[in-house]
Amino acid sequence: MYARTTTITAEPKRMHEGIADVRDHVMPAVAGMDGYTGLSLLVDRTSGRCIVTTGWTTAEALAGSREKVTEMRRRAADRFGTRDTQVQEWEIATMHRLHSATDDSCARVLWSRTDPTVLDETLDAFRREIVPRMDDLPGFCSLSLLVDRRTGHGSVTTVYADRAALDATRDTISAMRDEFAGARGVMVTEEAEFEVVLHSLRVPELV
């Protein structure tokens, strides 16, 4: 399974216009493409940062959609009031879902980098040491880990039932993050929190 993320830095006052465009135009358009498995949209209304993620069954489907979504991306960026977009393509290395997200859900995204030569070993350790512990966290819904095998970059998104659950898990997740990163030589490069505005990404369990 594969994913493409498009990060947009929007004008906060035009956030609603951009969200409407992704919901009403982008989602219906990509839904008919071969290998499409859904879409999610995360937003930070304070900073204007938005992340659109689309899922694809194969690397071929991901590549086949590449040119088709270019104009949609330009349109969405215009609606968000910006030309500032960053596109990244990933392998979905891990997906664990305990509950589906709802309109109240929030997400924490952590970006990292590790040595590509030990990536498989690091992924195995993550699935063994981190994933089983997530089910015990209050309000936990799902976890996904995206990786770029060439560079060793990764992105972990954890989704919670609501803002209260996100807040309640912050210290626990920070401790888990620091322990795992220190033991495995993973460099955490950034962490951010978002509202889950659209949640139709349907990826099967991958652990």
Total DSSP helices: 7
Q: Structural class per helix/strand content?
A: alpha+beta
Name of the CATH first level of the largest domain: Alpha Beta
**So what's the oligomer here?**
single chain
User: What low-confidence regions span 5 or more consecutive residues with pLDDT below 50?
Assistant: none
Walkthrough of the structure:
The protein folds into two domains: 1-83, 2-Layer Sandwich (Alpha-Beta Plaits); 90-196, 2-Layer Sandwich (Alpha-Beta Plaits). Helix 1 (15-31) packs antiparallel against helix 3. An eight-stranded antiparallel barrel has the order 1-3-2-8-5-7-6-4. The protein starts with a strand and ends in an 8-residue tail after the last strand. Helices cover 34% and strands 36% of the residues. Strand 2 (36-43) and strand 3 form a beta hairpin. By secondary structure, the protein is an alpha+beta fold. The mean pLDDT is 94. The protein is built from seven helices and eight strands. It has helices spanning 15-31, 59-65, 70-79, 119-129, 131-134, 163-168, 170-184; strands spanning 2-9, 36-43, 49-56, 85-97, 106-113, 140-148, 153-160, 187-199.
